[in-house]
Every structure is written in structure tokens, then in C-alpha cells.
Amino acid sequence: MGLRLRSKEVTEGDEALPRRALLKAVGLVDEEMDKPLVAIANSWNQIVPGHVHLDEVARAVARGVRAAGAVPLEFNTIAICDGVAMGTEGMFYSLPSREVIADSIELVVQAHRFDAVVAVCSCDKIIPGMLMALARLNLPSIVVTGGPMLPGEWRGERLDVISAFEAVGKLKAGKICPKEAKEIENRACPGPGSCAGMFTANTMACLTEALGMSLPGMATCHAIDARKLRLAEESGRQVVQLLRRNLTPKKIMTRQAFENAIVVDLALGGSTNTLLHLPAIAAELGIRLDLDMFDRLSRRVPQLCNLRPGGPYFMIDLDRAGGVPALMKQLGKLIKRTPLTVTGLTVEENLRKVKVLDSRVIRPLSKPYRKEGGIAVLYGSLAPKGAVLKLAGLSPQLKRFQGKARVFRGEDEAVKALLSGRIRRKDVIVITYEGPKGGPGMREMLRITSAVVGMGLGTQVALVTDGRFSGGTRGICIGHVSPEAAEGGPIAAVRDGDRILIDIPRRRVDLLIPEDELKARLKQLPPFKPRFQRGYLALYSGTVSSASEGAIRQWHPSPTRS
């Protein structure tokens, strides 16, 4: 093969006899001891819809690895379903699981001296967690994402999980009856796959492809499509070719590749959670992606796609239109053409024969849905280190919003107030102490954003928080406010009745009180007391960085405000 295999540390020589004996206990034979060992890191489980089929996908990967002359050995890591955890205390654990996933893959691969890795995964924290591990390990690697779910259907309309969340608000507002709500519940999620719109799971799958870490067509190929198994088997073959060439993630995930991923994200109108995940992946490679980079690109990259939750199209439409390769081809000179990909070819070579198959789903540069990208970064007196707004979920006509603050400590209090009718038009719901440290874990708040839309307040009420929102969010929703309340950020000093101004063209979010008054309030803030004193979340709260830095682990933890 031309390079020294790491697995020889385990399998070669007289002193390896007991190690070979243990490998024979799991079924390996003598001939396989001389071949490369390829880890298949799989997040299969019976809890998450995006993962229930990944056992079959991994078997296809293994067939490809064997056909290419290597030995596949599979292990599992954890996966949390954000949708199942949403609105419960379980949501505290979702974002923190990203680091556990990355660590667990590093531990298994390093301990057993694997030569290469295939990551089989789906969904929100799992894809970025695996990419973080692959970047950290820097072994020949490839990602196989599990594919989207098909949309549901009822009364001639297509449904997804957001339809189910928004049905709660509609039911509370009397817009649908319990029987209709049950029909939506039964039909919204018809089978395996990551939820059917351009939410965080599918955004991350698309960005993995744009980064060059999965084969072309992988992100939009649906979970139930036989093409997924063929792509999985091809990925198993290809990772052995990457090993032969010693083509590693560090050679693929360059700064230019990350720029491509951000451009694709903005053109798709993807999830704001990518502003947490892409910096975290890049940090493993020593690359810094700051918020200003996202906003700078957003001002010149148009939004060419309009998928759910902001638009009418679903992942199945994007797939039929040509998927991520077609979008990258449509973006023309906005895409860097020289980065290498897991095909062994450059972006330019991969796109040479690609065509857009439906210009309604992937519009030309001359006729975008929005002249700017789908994400904006805001600064101001309320967010000195930045905050994030998903423009793709807003009407282009909405330029400014000013309203009266209604302050809640945590999402639960805000939801109770909303559902009991205590939120009025022109209110700005301010949710504090939901950041990486303060939550801890920066819970997604799909429950309240969906209820706002379901109750018909999507354009009448704004939300501002140091927490984050689901990729399924639409409306005037500003998240990732930094510094967060637990760090003594200005959001901790907001009081009921304060006026807040959101100015999208100027990229501002401001608390309209005198500067001296804000400073005085900040001095009066009580010491922050972490919610958890024991367990993983206590550790996480003490080691996680600001959302503006990707909520990544700090190796030298800084104390919270005292």
C-alpha cells in the first residue's frame, strides 16, 4: 500500500499474538491481519428517526470496504433526537452531546489503532460531532449521512415535524380541533430519515458534502432510496482509496472548503446552528471562523433556495433539482474550485458535468429569493459580541422591529405566558439564562417559536435569547446573544417594559436605555449559580466557550461570573 499501517501495531509480530487472538474472537482470520483496519463509526439506534436505518447503511459500507481489500469493524456512538427532547429538560443535553460524540470516536479509533474511518451518521449534533472527531484524528475518512425523511401528506398539503410543532399553537388558538391535530401527529413523520425540510440535520448533511467530506449526492439522497445503499457501498470502497493516497481531512477541510460550506449554507437559507458547528469543526484543524466571516459572506451571497421552514420546498425537491452539486454549480464564482474532496478530485472536477434540473428550486444568480444570504449576524448594545438571525425565515419586507420587552428566565416561563394569552403584538420575548453556560447546553427553542407561528403571531412578536433556535424556526427570532446572561452580558439586565430595536439593514439589536443605566444594572446583577452541580452538565457549563466562538470546549476553563 506504500505507507505504514497504524493497525500493524496491533496485528504484526510475535508480541501481537494475544491481540490477534482477541480479534479472532470477533471473527477475523489470519489473512485479514495483514489488511488495513477500517473503523465504521455508526450512530445507529432505535430512538432517532434519522438513525433507525443506519444499521443497513453500515452493512453497505462494510461491503465496500471488503471489496476494496480492507477489513471493516463497526462500533457505535450516542445520538440524541432534538425533536423528542424538545421542550423538556432533556434538551439541556443535546448540544453538549456533540463533544461526547467527538471524544468517543477519538477514544475508540486511537485505542484500537485503526487506519481509516467511515462515519455513518445523521442529525443535528451527530454529524458535526463526527466531523470534529475526523478532523482531530486526521486519518483518511469519509462521511455517509443517512438521508432526509420523506414529507408527510394530509388534505393535499405536505407535512413535516414543524407542522406537528406548529399544530400545538393552532390547537391552543382554536384554529384546529383535537381530531385534526391527531391527524397531523399521525402523518407528519412518515418514516426513517432526518426531518424533511432544511432544518439543522439536513443543513449539516449538505455542508458536509460542500466541505468535500462526503460523496456528491449524499446529502439529499433520501433514507428510503436504494441509491443511499449504493452511495454507502461506494463510500466504503473510496475510504480505502483515500488511505492508499493518504488523503486526510486536513487536506480536504481547508479554509477555502469552509468558505464553500458557508456559501452553500447562505444560499440554502440553512439553520443558524451552523454558526456553532462549523467553527467547532474548524477549530479542530486550527482554523478560526468568526461571526464576521459569516456576515461578510452573507452580504454578497444570494439565497437561491427556499425550503421549509421558510419556503414551500422540501429536501425531496432539492434532490430532484440536482442537490448540493447543482447548487454549487449555480453559485458560479462564489464557490472556490480548487479544494480537494473525498472523491480524490477537486470541486472543479466534481462539478464539471453537473446541471441544475429545476430552476424553481435552485434559482439562478440573476433571480434569487433574496439578494443576501439566509443568515445575518447582529451586534449592538444588547449583543456586543454578536447574535444570529435567520433571514430565510423572514419576509424580505421586514426591515425593522421595535417592541416592549417581556423578560423570562428560561423557555418554560415564556411558553406558559404565551399559551395563556399574556403575550401581545409588538412584544419582544426575551429569554435569558439559556446560553451554553447558563442553560447549560443552549437548548433549542422550537416549542415557543412554533407556538408563536401557530397562534398567528409570527410577524407580530420577536424573540431574543442567549439560547438557540431549531433549524425549523421561522419568524423574528434572534439567538446566540453574546455575552450570555451567565457571563454578565447585557441580556441579563433587560427588564419588563424596556424598548428593544431590531434593525436588520444595519445589523443591530439594541436595548434602548441610557448607557449609564445599563452599566448600573449590570453592576447590580446577582452572582450566577449554575443549575447543575454534578454530572456531565456541571462539567460542560464550566468548560464551554461563548456561542460567538462556537460553544466549544475550553481546555483551560474560565470561571463564570461571581
Structure in words:
By secondary structure, the protein is of the alpha/beta class. It is 36% helix and 14% strand. The chain is built from 21 helices and 14 strands. The protein has helices at residues 8-11, 17-25, 54-67, 82-85, 94-111, 126-137, 161-172, 178-187, 200-211, 226-245, 249-252, 255-268, 274-283, 291-298, 315-320, 323-330, 347-351, 411-419, 446-454, 515-523, 536-543; strands at residues 37-42, 71-76, 116-121, 141-145, 152-154, 157-159, 375-380, 383-390, 400-409, 427-432, 462-465, 476-482, 499-503, 508-511. It has an 8-stranded mixed beta sheet with strand order 7-8-12-11-10-9-13-14. A hairpin with a 4-residue loop joins strand 13 and strand 14. Helix 7 (161-172) runs antiparallel to helix 8 and helix 7 (161-172) packs across helix 19 (446-454). The chain is globular. The termini are far apart. Residues 558-562 have low confidence and may be disordered.
